[in-house]
Structure formats: structure tokens, C-alpha cells
Amino acid sequence: MKDMMSYKGYLGSVHYSDDDQVFYGKLEYIKALVNYEGMDVTGLRQAFQEAVDDYLALCAAEGLEAERPFKGSFNVRTGCDLHRRAAMYALECGSNLNKVVTEALEQYLLTHSPCRSSD
């Protein structure tokens, strides 16, 4: 994955500030704001891993459950007509809306290439 690092199930962004001449990022896909920075790639990776470890330690010390990215559920805003059509389809097929949406998303991701930026 471009511009991302992974550690203990957490994803961290990778950015560069030419003005400050520093690499920086934050933990993605959680609500808590956890930032890190480094002077080079090695320093950035180390700071990212330390940020994850510090976040997990802080949550444990405070008796809080650490947020985990990608819990397996999310809200989808489809509009009334598509919502109705999908619910009716599920009913007619003896299924449920969650299963219809999951199967549709799986099929879409199988048949479409990842988006490419035009940099």
C-alpha cells in the first residue's frame, strides 16, 4: 500500500514536509489523534512503532480499550431508493440487507482495479 506503514494491526500515514525537511504521519482509521515524525525513513518507521506502542500502553494504563481499525462494520449512505431496492432484493432472495451489501462489495472489489492517481 502506497504511503502507509503497518505495525501490530495499525496503519500509519507517510508524508514529507519540504519546508520543515521532516517525514511525518499519524495513525489512520482510528478516532484518537496519534502523530509521529522522523528525519529519515528509518526514523519515521521507529517513531511510528513507538507511537503505536505508546498508544497501547497509555490505553492500558488508563484502563481504556484501545481503538482498533476496521472493526467490521461501517455506515453506508445509499439514498432512500437504493436502500429500498436493496432491502426488497434481500427479502425476495430470503437473505438480509447486510449479506446483500457484503456480497455486492466483495464482487465489486474482485472486478475493479485499485484507483490510480494521475500524478
Describe the protein's architecture and organization.
By secondary structure, the protein is an alpha+beta fold. It folds into two domains: 4-62, no CATH class; 80-111, no CATH class. It contains three helices and five strands. It has helices spanning 41-62, 80-92, 97-111; strands at 4-7, 10-13, 15-17, 22-28, 35-38. Strands 1, 2, 3, 4 and 5 form a five-stranded antiparallel sheet that branches. Strand 1 and strand 2 (10-13) form a beta hairpin. It is elongated.
Q: Layout of helices and strands, plus pairs?
A:
Elements: E1 4-7, E2 10-13, E3 15-17, E4 22-28, E5 35-38, H1 41-62, H2 80-92, H3 97-111
Antiparallel strand pairs: 1-2, 2-4, 3-4, 4-5
Helix pairs in contact: 2-3
Distance between the termini: 16 Å
Q: What is the alpha-carbon Rg in Å?
A: 20 Å
Q: Low-confidence parts lasting 5 or more residues at pLDDT below 50?
A: none
Number of domains: 2
Tell me, briefly, the overall form.
elongated
Helix content: 40-55%
Helix count, per DSSP? 3
Q: Largest beta sheet, briefly?
A: 5 strands, antiparallel
